[in-house]
Amino acid sequence: MTWKKVTGAESYVVYQKAGTGAYKKAAAVTGTAYTAKSLKTGTNYGYYVQAVGKNGLTGRNSVKVTAKPVLAKVAGIKVTAGSKKATVSWKKVT
């Protein structure tokens, strides 16, 4: 996720929740981007960002956004025909 720089911000705190759980601090970053990792497919996640200025002063929370990871498409499908049978193979989806 990315967001616009806030004037006077020295860093940002990203908050995340899974499903109907509570928001928890996921990361503190100095830039304007964050990549969530180790998410579970099919779970709804919520996020918001808070700017942090000098002396730890915080700004208002950003708008809350949601995301739901889905599995990637199966790729590399291959069919090998044999006598009275066919073998289908594909690349593993991570």
Describe the structure.
By secondary structure, this protein is mostly beta strands. It has no helices and seven strands. It has strands at residues 11-18, 24-29, 45-52, 58-61, 65-67, 78-82, 85-89.
Features:
elongated, two-stranded antiparallel ribbon, 94 residues, five-stranded antiparallel sheet, mainly beta
Please provide a brief summary of the model:
By secondary structure, this protein is mostly beta strands.
Radius of gyration: 21 Å
Number of strands: 7
- Overall outline: elongated
Unreliable spans are none
Largest sheet: 5 strands, antiparallel
Our measurement of the CA-to-CA distance between the termini, rounded to an integer number of angstroms, reads 21 Å
Spell the H/E element sequence.
Answer: EEEEEEE
Strand content: 35-45%
Kindly state the mean pLDDT as a whole number?
90
- Amount of helix: under 10%
Structural category is mainly beta
Helix count equals 0
Describe the protein's topology:
Layout: E1 11-18, E2 24-29, E3 45-52, E4 58-61, E5 65-67, E6 78-82, E7 85-89
Antiparallel strand pairs: 1-2, 1-3, 3-4, 3-5, 6-7
